């Protein structure tokens, strides 16, 4: 693994565990983490507590800037991976840049399934999977 480029798509508990595991056997190989969300890793399980105001936004996070910095991880937050070319060992980001890898981990987790059918697109029909979803709900319930 020494010197090989590690790319992790996803910035959740699985991605953080992978970073720690890689660093336990190689302290210097390049590691890049790509996340569509523009924030540090957080626990989606806590989002309902955040909406209910039982915890603050800062309490959602399970990693901070220091976690990535101490492990020498390049973070690419707020940029969605939109394609992978295994033959070229390249991940393509939504801004058309390519990110080369020797080893790739896709740790994107789950995504919310949107309803289909009549009324599925009404303004009060929401999903809850991300901080952005939670903040949208918080804005809407202020006027409910």
CATH arch. level architecture: 3-Layer(bba) Sandwich
Which class in CATH terms? Alpha Beta
Count structural domains.
1
> β content, as a range?
15-25%
Terminal residue distance: 54 Å
- The number of distinct helices, counting runs of at least 4 residues, comes to 4
- CATH H-level superfamily title: FAD/NAD(P)-binding domain
Mean pLDDT: 94
Going across the major beta sheet, what is the strand order?
3-2-1-7
Gross geometry: globular
Topology, number of strands: 7
Characterize the biggest β-sheet: 4 strands, parallel
The assigned structural class equals alpha/beta
Briefly characterize the structure.
With about 140 residues, the protein is of the alpha/beta class.
Give an overview in words.
The chain is of the alpha/beta class and 144 residues long. The protein has a single domain, classed as FAD/NAD(P)-binding domain (3-Layer(bba) Sandwich). 24% of the residues lie in helices and 21% in strands. The protein has 4 helices and 7 strands. The strands form 2 sheets. It has a 4-stranded parallel beta sheet with strand order 3-2-1-7. A 3-stranded antiparallel beta sheet has the order 4-5-6, with no helix packed on it. The radius of gyration is 17 Å and the shape is globular.
Task: Furnish the topology, listing elements before pairings.
Layout lengths: L5 E4 L3 H13 L5 E5 L11 H5 L13 H6 L2 E5 L3 E5 L4 E4 L4 E3 L2 E4 L24 H11 L3
Parallel strand pairs: 1-2, 1-7, 2-3
Antiparallel strand pairs: 4-5, 5-6
